[in-house]
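Many introductory courses stop at the sequence. We go one step further.
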Amino acid sequence: MVNLINFFTHGPDEVRAWIIRKGFLAPKAGSVIHNDFEKAFIMAEVMAIDELMVHGTVAVMKEKGRWREEGKTYEVKDGDCIEFEIGQI
């Protein structure tokens, strides 16, 4: 009804959820984390959080081919787990 979705970021110690409007492209979604992410966006490495929960590790997801690289025109989906590749400004 309000067109909000969640995407996730992860690190060795935590997983964080971020709320964005449905339809945001990857660079705009990254700007929710930090404004510079939108300006310096290179690519997003994406997988589904529910699949990560089943398989357990990023290494297994990559081995199974469930980790993909997306560009500036990628529309973030509800439940995406994203690692942003950012260049220098």
